[in-house]
Design brief:
Elements (H helix, E strand, L loop, with lengths): L2 E3 L10 H5 L6 E5 L2 H5 L5 H20 L3 E5 L10 H12 L4 E4 L4 H8 L5 E4 L8 H8 L7 H12 L3 E2 L2 E2 L30 H13 L16 H14 L1 H4 L19 H6 L4 H13 L5 H25 L27 H13 L4 H15 L3 H11 L5 H12 L16 H7 L20 H12 L1 H4 L6 H9 L2 H19 L5
Parallel strand pairs: 1-2, 1-4, 2-3, 4-5
Antiparallel strand pairs: 6-7
Helix pairs in contact: 3-8, 7-13, 12-13, 13-17, 14-15, 15-19, 16-17, 19-22
Bound molecules: flavin-adenine dinucleotide, ligand DLZ and iron/sulfur cluster (SF4).
Length: about 500
């Protein structure tokens, strides 16, 4: 007999390792372990979601005839690591070896490969692009831009393809998708599930063991099995998808979810299948329930961005998370852990992260990410923050988004220019600024929005790196045309503001 490892983010019945093995002979190993729960201080909601979903998945496998050796976190025999649990179970069952689907993190791939057991690693074919697909696409290209990869994925899946042409004649409808915050949001938000007894048991365990971790465990409303996740998806497809495109980039103080799907955690843990999700969205378009700009935009996020960032993670190798192209070394300030701030955009994005283990893409990229990049925070520290605080965070997807897209720490593999902006962008796309103590229209002096000061500080200190970037030439022309005294004033005020941040003063 063999052991079949199923990790906390591999909760799919058609997992390659399960397909390979025999339920009459082999034993599934699943384990809640301290090592996985502590490589970063995960948000309690994330840990509870994964443990509850793991327990339900194990029960489902058992009811389907599998023998499951499941280790709970509080089991006195728990060795504390995935490899420790495999060795313990292998000795007990006299297993000939262990079969597993490739994990989504270099750390765990190395640990499993180093075990003194016969191991058989299988590709994770829940993704649309294989490693070879990505390598073939990347081979010989000077630039690895998502847009061209995405077109290949459209062709491969046939999603929104008419003959051999893109539906509607264009591959990408993003120019219709950047509307500012609307007056009202008609979607009432994600479907919420009341915890049952089994989920309650997990909540109590996590409350007890991870009391010091940043994040509120209650109210807990996530789906914890694939049936609930499918209900959640159906609700969003009907009520959220039609306007997903229009307001994808908009942010509102009292609307945490806008028209977003809140499915990253379910896709990444294996409760939803990406191709099925995209096919369901395509049906909404074909049935006339959702417009093309919404459906194309949504499908692009999944078969484009999601597949592409995974390709980059495996293409670039284990040192990717350590990259620091801009040599940023500031420590992550307390504001990221809920420290006092007058910056309303930061305050709102961090507060909702604490409460929901969720923030949408533009909050991650253009509020917290933008701030970290402008302030020059060490990419490894902000990477660990994102990996810890979001329920959908696993390194294969989080690291390229943080190190690459958001922090430009990979030197421009993912982003052709850094995602930085002054307060003007945040003001245009949100309703934050009108209630903020800082003034977004003030550039220097009392009450000036810190994003306005820090933006030019960033541009100035990285002039050597970016001055020749064609997409940044206009901003450098503006900066260099500015009166020398004004430039000096902006830089000295930015420095004074950063000094206050470093001193731990409320900002
Ligand atoms: P929606 O906006 O409704 O989009 C639907 C789905 O598209 C998402 O669930 C996701 O699976 C996929 N998607 C959208 N954008 C991306 C993207 N850039 N990369 C990969 N998939 C994408 N996404 C994660 O899944 N895990 C992470 O740890 C993560 N960390 C991020 C860190 C930073 C700094 C940034 C800028 C983005 C990060 N993202 C991450 C991407 C994106 O922000 C989330 O996928 C999205 O906010 C999840 O919410 P949603 O399900 O409501 O997504
Ligand atoms: C994130 C996570 C956590 C918090 N806990 C566990 C766990 O106890 N057991 C487990 O099998 N997986 C857990 N995970 C998910 C793993 O960290 C994830 O499989 C790897 O990071 C690879 O993506
Ligand atoms: Fe954020 Fe500046 Fe707007 Fe305040 S004024 S919400 S700090 S962008």
């Amino acid at each position: 007999m063999r052991l079949v490892l199923v990790l906390g983010d591999q909760l799919s019945e058609n997992l390659s390792a399960l397909r390979k093995c025999d339920k009459a002979a082999d034993v599934v190993v699943m384990a809640e372990v301290a090592n996985e729960a502590a490589y970063v201080p995960h948000h309690p909601k994330k840990i509870a979601f994964l443990f509850a979903a793991m327990r339900k998945f194990a029960a489902k496998l058992e009811s389907n005839g599998w023998q499951v050796a499941y280790t709970r976190l509080d089991d006195p025999q728990n060795s504390g690591s995935i490899t420790g649990e495999l060795l313990r179970r292998a000795a007990k069952h006299e297993a000939a070896g262990v079969v597993y689907t490739e994990p989504g993190e270099w750390r765990l791939i190395a640990a499993l490969g180093d075990m003194p057991l016969k191991t058989h690693s299988l590709p994770d074919d829940r993704f649309i692009a294989t490693h070879k697909d990505f390598e073939d696409w990347a081979d010989g290209r000077k630039q690895l831009r998502m847009e061209y990869f995405y077109r290949d994925m459209r062709r491969k899946t046939g999603l929104l393809i008419d003959g051999d042409q893109p539906e509607g004649g264009k591959w990408n409808y993003d120019h219709d998708n950047r509307k500012p915050a609307p007056d009202e949001v008609t979607f009432s938000g994600p479907m919420k599930f009341t915890p049952d007894e089994d989920v309650e048991e997990v909540l109590t365990l996590v409350e007890d063991r991870f009391a010091d971790n940043f994040g509120d465990i209650r109210p807990f409303w996530f789906a914890t099995d694939s049936g609930q996740a499918k209900q959640h998806l159906a609700h969003w497809l009907e009520h959220g998808l039609p306007k997903f495109g229009d307001f994808q980039d908009a942010m509102m103080q009292d609307q945490r979810f806008m028209y977003h799907a809140i499915i990253g955690l379910y896709l990444n843990a294996g409760l939803l299948d990406p191709l099925n999700v995209c096919q369901a969205a395509e049906r909404e378009y074909k049935n006339g329930n959702a417009p093309l700009n919404a459906v194309e935009g949504f499908i692009r996020q999944i078969i484009g961005w999601r597949e592409y960032v995974r390709g980059i993670y495996f293409h670039e190798g284990p040192d990717y998370t350590a990259r620091n192209h801009l040599n940023h070394d500031r420590d992550l300030p307390p504001v990221f852990w809920g420290g006092e701030t007058d910056m309303l955009c930061m305050q709102k994005a961090v507060a909702q992260t604490k409460e929901e283990a969720y923030a949408h893409h533009i909050q991650r990229l253009m509020v917290t990410g933008n701030f970290a990049l402008l302030a020059g925070i060490a990419p490894s520290q902000i990477h660990e923050w994102y990996l810890a605080v979001y329920a959908d965070a696993f390194e294969w997807v989080e690291a390229p988004n943080t190190i690459g897209m958001s922090q430009f720490a990979d030197g421009g593999i993912i982003a052709s220019k850094p995602y930085v902006s002054s307060g003007n962008y945040i003001n245009k796309m949100s309703d934050y600024c009108k209630s903020c103590r800082y003034s977004v229209t003030t550039k220097t002096g009392e009450g000036a929005c810190p994003f306005n000061l820090l933006y030019w500080h960033f541009m100035d200190r990285h002039q050597d790196t970016f001055a020749k970037n064609p997409r940044m030439g206009q901003m450098y022309a503006t900066w260099n045309r500015m009166d020398a005294d004004k430039r000096a004033l902006i830089l000295s005020e930015a420095k004074a503001w950063l000094d206050r941040l470093d001193a731990g003063e409320p900002v």
